[in-house]
Write a structure and sequence with these properties.
This protein has about 80 residues and is of the alpha+beta class. The chain has a single domain, classed as Glutaredoxin (3-Layer(aba) Sandwich). It has a four-stranded mixed beta sheet with strand order 2-1-3-4, with helices on both faces.
């Protein structure tokens, strides 16, 4: 499973999302879109929005810190790993 979280340094919801993923034992790549314009454009292309956090869980995009959507995306990704 590949998990990417697009963040900015001053985003409290980004920190909450990262902490939530850590608590669940999920490894992720954190990308600071304030420092990387190309990655910011990649995030906008994936999510259709400029707000952070945006979490990419094996291609499933979760915009914002939404526990239910994160959990559903993680379950979906885990289900695909078994096949």
């Amino acid at each position: 499973m590949k998990v990417i979280i697009y963040t900015t340094p001053v985003c409290p919801y980004c920190d909450m999302a990262k902490q939530y993923l850590k608590q669940k034992g999920v490894q992720f790549e954190s990308i600071d879109v304030a420092a990387d314009k190309a990655k910011a454009l990649e995030m906008i292309k994936k999510s259709g929005q400029m707000g952070v956090p945006v979490i990419d869980i094996d291609g499933i995009i979760v915009a914002g810190f939404n526990r239910e959507q994160i959990d559903a995306a993680l379950e979906h990704a885990k289900g695909h790993e078994k096949h």
